[in-house]
Amino acid sequence: NMSPTIFQSKLLTIHTFWVFFAFAIIIATYQLIKLATKNSLKIQFLSDNFFKLIIIGIIGARITSIIFNYKTYLYEFSIEAFSRLFYIWDKGLSFWGAMLAMILYFYHISKKHEQNFFKWLDIIIPATILGLAIGHLGTFFEGTNYGIPTSLPWGVNFESPSIKYAVPIHPTQIYAFLYSS
After folding, report:
1. What is the pLDDT of residues 123-157, one digit of tens each?
2. Cβ pair 104, 152 in contact under 8 A
């Protein structure tokens, strides 16, 4: 049985995915700072633009999610439906949309501030992959991004109404974690 919720009360719910997500950001940031220092890149450049990068990433993630899931968000024309477009806490975010938006913005600011974009990418990519590896563990506990049925001994049964299989399935999240590690 997977554990999508660590703690729940009337006032607060702590989701396992978001704990892993926060942990992934902390570890990836630490790795990024370590690699930037080792490669003599200015941490100040990154910290000056960090908040903007995060906002751009969230906007890109949400827009991409809305585009690819437009039937979920644009099923009716009303003020309420329009306001739901801004509910980023509904987990309607696209990782790839965030990455694309952030890379495009980072390229722009790198040129503007005369920073070597490709040298920065050389340290951002390994830190991001480390963060992704940790994030894949969160998706395992959340019961998302799952695989297809398997008869292999390491198949996993997820007890969730959102998962369409009632038989053991491939733990693709764990495969992704191992691949990313």
Report:
1. 999 999 999 999 999 989 888 888 999 999 999 98
2. no
Residue indicated by tokens 């990455």: 99
Q: Report whether 106 contacts 117 (CB < 8 A).
A: yes
State how far the Cα of 12 lies from the Cα of 114, in Å rounded to an integer: 45
Query: Tell me, what amino acid is at 148?
Result: I
DSSP 8-state secondary structure symbol assigned to residue 168: -
Residue 13: φ, ψ to 5°: -125, 130
CB 117 within 8 A of CB 107: yes
CA proximity to 95, closest of 135, 142, 130: 135
pLDDT digits (tens, 9 = 90+) for 11-46: 888 888 889 989 999 999 999 999 999 999 999 998
What does the pLDDT look like over 73-127, one tens digit per residue? 777 787 877 777 777 777 678 889 999 999 999 999 999 999 999 999 999 999 9
Identify the CA nearest to 137 among candidates 83, 96, 173, 93.
Answer: 173
Residues β-bridged to residue 181: none
CA 68 to chain centre: 16
As a whole number of angstroms, the distance between CA 120 and CA 105 comes to 13
Helix extents (H) in 39-94 = 43-68, 70-73, 79-84
- 143, two tokens: 């019961």
